[in-house]
Amino acid sequence: MSEQSVFAAELSWPDYDARVRDGKVPILLPIGSMEQHGHHMPMNVDVLLPVEFARRVAMQTGALVAPPFTYGYKSHQKSGGGNYLPGTTSLDGATLVAALRDVLKEFARHGVRRICLFNGHFENSWFIIEGIDLALRELKWGGIDDMKVVVLSYWDFVDKDTIKRLYPKGFPGWEIEHGGVLETSLMLALHPEQVRLERAIDHAPASFPPYDVYPPKPEWAPASGTLSSPKEASAEKGEILLQVCVDGIVKALKTEFPN
Amino acid sequence: MSEQSVFAAELSWPDYDARVRDGKVPILLPIGSMEQHGHHMPMNVDVLLPVEFARRVAMQTGALVAPPFTYGYKSHQKSGGGNYLPGTTSLDGATLVAALRDVLKEFARHGVRRICLFNGHFENSWFIIEGIDLALRELKWGGIDDMKVVVLSYWDFVDKDTIKRLYPKGFPGWEIEHGGVLETSLMLALHPEQVRLERAIDHAPASFPPYDVYPPKPEWAPASGTLSSPKEASAEKGEILLQVCVDGIVKALKTEFPN
Amino acid sequence: MSEQSVFAAELSWPDYDARVRDGKVPILLPIGSMEQHGHHMPMNVDVLLPVEFARRVAMQTGALVAPPFTYGYKSHQKSGGGNYLPGTTSLDGATLVAALRDVLKEFARHGVRRICLFNGHFENSWFIIEGIDLALRELKWGGIDDMKVVVLSYWDFVDKDTIKRLYPKGFPGWEIEHGGVLETSLMLALHPEQVRLERAIDHAPASFPPYDVYPPKPEWAPASGTLSSPKEASAEKGEILLQVCVDGIVKALKTEFPN
Amino acid sequence: MSEQSVFAAELSWPDYDARVRDGKVPILLPIGSMEQHGHHMPMNVDVLLPVEFARRVAMQTGALVAPPFTYGYKSHQKSGGGNYLPGTTSLDGATLVAALRDVLKEFARHGVRRICLFNGHFENSWFIIEGIDLALRELKWGGIDDMKVVVLSYWDFVDKDTIKRLYPKGFPGWEIEHGGVLETSLMLALHPEQVRLERAIDHAPASFPPYDVYPPKPEWAPASGTLSSPKEASAEKGEILLQVCVDGIVKALKTEFPN
Amino acid sequence: MSEQSVFAAELSWPDYDARVRDGKVPILLPIGSMEQHGHHMPMNVDVLLPVEFARRVAMQTGALVAPPFTYGYKSHQKSGGGNYLPGTTSLDGATLVAALRDVLKEFARHGVRRICLFNGHFENSWFIIEGIDLALRELKWGGIDDMKVVVLSYWDFVDKDTIKRLYPKGFPGWEIEHGGVLETSLMLALHPEQVRLERAIDHAPASFPPYDVYPPKPEWAPASGTLSSPKEASAEKGEILLQVCVDGIVKALKTEFPN
Amino acid sequence: MSEQSVFAAELSWPDYDARVRDGKVPILLPIGSMEQHGHHMPMNVDVLLPVEFARRVAMQTGALVAPPFTYGYKSHQKSGGGNYLPGTTSLDGATLVAALRDVLKEFARHGVRRICLFNGHFENSWFIIEGIDLALRELKWGGIDDMKVVVLSYWDFVDKDTIKRLYPKGFPGWEIEHGGVLETSLMLALHPEQVRLERAIDHAPASFPPYDVYPPKPEWAPASGTLSSPKEASAEKGEILLQVCVDGIVKALKTEFPN
Questions:
Q1: pTM, two decimal places
Q2: What does the UniProt keyword field contain (chains A, B, C, D, E, F) (predicted)?
Q3: Nearest CA to C44 among C69, C78, C74, C10?
Q4: Are F and E touching by the rule of 3+ CB pairs within 8 Å?
């Protein structure tokens, strides 16, 4: 317990209560997953990154960071390699929806009226939307209609100029940035001891036909588990990404949660 | 990513896969909660403690620790003060059941056949049982009938002699040990920077009638959120608890997961 | 139909309506199970006993007894032998939760505002709590926020002195009192024609390690299905239990549902 | 416990096990409800009648009667007056489906392969079908594909000649026989102490337009709660019904569950 | 998009909005199924017919027809041949309930307060009731308590005189009118190009014992999939049915949705 | 009924059965929605278009088109304007998932082993994936593990060259192509009588910040309901789109469902 921590769960309840009960202080909730990220990175990337973004944003805005969701929705072949890969450990859609609905309602009970979800795992996106929709519906039934929820994926804050700087040879697209330059650079900047870039498999960006097949076809995705090569990743790129995204998110939150 | 980490999500997928695919290596899964723990402790106690127990046990047994469940079932008045208290952030029973069912099935898909759940939050207990039951049922439908799951709450490994040593003035019972000597001593031993013992409220052990009332009656529980006084807690007691419980759990796992 | 019956379902609707519509008269709802209770007792013990306690309490308090839940949650190895035993016939947790939620809401629709659940089966406990929580939540959504629910298990009203009288050789603990002296004595007092004490298997109290294993291990529990020996049971002890528990429950209800 | 009881829950588990484990002995499961039945009858009619039919059929066929479902699906205006009436206490459809699914699967676990559901409440019908369908589906997933389930409502065994004898002035149709001559006569034959025929309201048979309206329109149904007058009911008619229906059901079960 | 269409989904949103936002204009919602209808008719009968009835009624009343439910509840052996037949494509009960609940709530959000469900598939009936009940419950939680829903099956508007005209040799009953004279005549009147009466199998009306068996027994139902012979069907009879039913439904809606 | 129809539900069951029972013939299942599409188009666009694409593809491949899903998932602000707009009529995520799961399993029961989902509504995407995943899981439990499902959204088959031809002034991106040039051109080519291009509101492409807000902010999206202007739409462009997409889809299906 630390009276000054930005992590809500590191506060005692009286300290937390004093911070949130009037509804002004936003709660930042990282939604991650346990998912394979290639040979060169651990499986906690989608938790570590949104937690760190949330922490930095909280430092600048006075928000509090809630405990992350450590498991997320199933990996999709075109954005995470597919849910048949070893290590990837996923929830059914309904489970993620219910968990998010429950937690949002609990924060509302505490008085919180501003929540920002920091998504770290692309496939969570639509189930996050449904979880919010159900939570807002039930809150309304319970008489609370002033909750506001912002949802963001940090990579959406990387602007075009930054993309050009980071991907001088061309940007493969966010969808196949799984285990690629973006995530690897961020991990190199933040948790270099958890990256073994020398183990990364270099390969051409994954290229998929314009449709999906189920069960997924292992031959469609690189055997490494990454969808684009991380070889060009660097801590410097990670620092750039951190700065650009944190700045963008801070600005967004100041707009949506003024004063 | 570290090839030697005991935390499964800190491994790359090939390293993880090599460890678990033959089913021998147990997965230790901490099930926590975000719950108020009085004025003197943070709200992450029920996550930090089972994670640390799991880590120590994994170090001795070669098991791997999965990412913890960071939210748990609703706090009950007689064992956690009640779910109306600020900060306590809980899941519906069905949500916890579904999340556990999903994750157990995913580990089974990886090849895991031995799982030990480290419960850190009393109220999770019965929903854990249901989650396991549903997972084993569905695994059987899918043709897997050799999964074995052990469930434990670390405090159940404190033997009578240790209780006498730790509670020379008498043991109030595990149920009202919420935020009391046990948890506080463990936190003092492990995370002293997160404890403010001087802020603890001293009070007589909570005493409840032999029935429950809903909605809970705030006047039944101490306003501090603890159910027994943590004043007699100490890091020394925490060390004793750590040793006794880790020894007991290691022995249990060697019995249930031999070789 | 009897205008004077304490059983709600034995009343005509106009008589029932006249009794409950102003919300003063409590409904007592027995929650049982169909569960094996050893060689010497039938499988309806967990229904018969709470129904009888409810009936006696209703006679003294003017409450009404609702039809019992005849099936309950899965038997747990350490408190009921395990759900693999023949005859034990159980519901999924979600089913019990839903059934209780539905019925509580229906009573509220009738005008009832005081309900006491008489649990006869240990394993129902946490799913009862969840059922109540969901019912109160939905009632609140529907504009009803003055429902009060008491939950009790009759054995919790046996005080320490009575325990000493009934178990002169030492009390094994409620958890393993499955099919033991308590239940058998009560059945001998109330339904002696349904007990064959001569068929009871005498054995040492079941002793379990401080953790659970799934699937359950048949070798952990006595083959008889009882967890402690019923040999010392007697109708006299049953009468004592009846009196102590009924007195305690009546007092509790007068406290919680005054006037 | 009685070794000879036809009620499954009155047996000890070894006696029950010996009876059912080879799958030959049918389980008869009464599905009732708690529902208003007019001014002259109690609200347990839909439980008492199928239980008694099941008991009589079990006596003649060697089957066992399981504990009844004491709550059922919502009363419909055209067949039970509507679910807004006081005293009627109903389950959501999904709850009834789940409860039946669970219990059928448990009997299958015991070895039972022949089950007959005795429905006592018209509105249960379609949810019973769904419960069976889900149970058979899951049993098949678990490797059991030889379960056979018969479903019946006792009134469907009343043949045309008997109808003429019982309703000399014309038969109003089963749908509006709620609390009318059929049920009242059976109750007079079986539980005369629970009937107050002098309190029955005489009225013309309810007549409804060929569509339904929700919320139900109280002005459509007689205020008494019955849909046809019970005034012509008699114990003699009840005896005729008992004989005709029991004979018919016994014959049906001998056909479907030969030897 | 047509400003004058009676089909709601053929309007642009501003045109639709102008029509429905004050709650006066009823929405007619056809609930069908994809179900085998014998050798002589396609599997869309239960969609085409209620859509056409709704269209005609809308033309006369100013109502709007919503997109139909194209899949419905499982076919029952005694009313549709059984859900094991090829081509019949059904939903679980819970799915149909949820879909109807969702859609009713959405129409309420638009301002609609009058809805009439046109059921084209007998087996949908009870799940429709549950869907409405859940929708009205949730709407009430959300503060909307003036929604009125009418449910009808068009065949219930065929009066006794018409039955005599259409079935001069005797009426087999609606339950076994599956693929018989009623539906075939309507299809001949409306979609003659979709009927091959020469392929119809002539057979005696299906005759079932007074109980059901699961899994269904194929030998109980005619192999053709129809439950009564369609041989006497004609376009003329179809025209009579159309007129009688449309007149009856229009009258009912004018009664229930006056002005 | 037409023996030659490409619409599965226009076949009689014997004709359908003959086509599908050996598993070779694919079922094409359009998944639509009822959703506002601006002032100039009706609300059935997301049904009409995938049905027509499926029909054309079926004509060329011998596949069969199943009845469409007429309702879909909630409109998202950035891709459909938001689910608060009048006329948009949506399902909860769980409902869509369940409906798809049910229908896929039914087709499998018929013998179908090749299914292609034609999605017409962007927001359905992830719930379609979950529905397939649950269906394949349950089919596997039931012993069927050779089902193959292709999912596509027709717009993904528009190649870069075609985009340049259709959007000479620059392509706004698929996400905001809601009610824009693509859909409007297709409707002009296929259903010109349902388009009122003169009513279309011309506006700059919607531009959103890189995050979402809930409840949605009406000021973020054009009041018209379209996200990009349809003014440049034409039947000619529609014909180009039809040809390009149909060709692409036919090729894809020949690849995935060879022979």
A1: 0.98
A2: Hydrolase, Metal-binding, Zinc
A3: C69
A4: yes
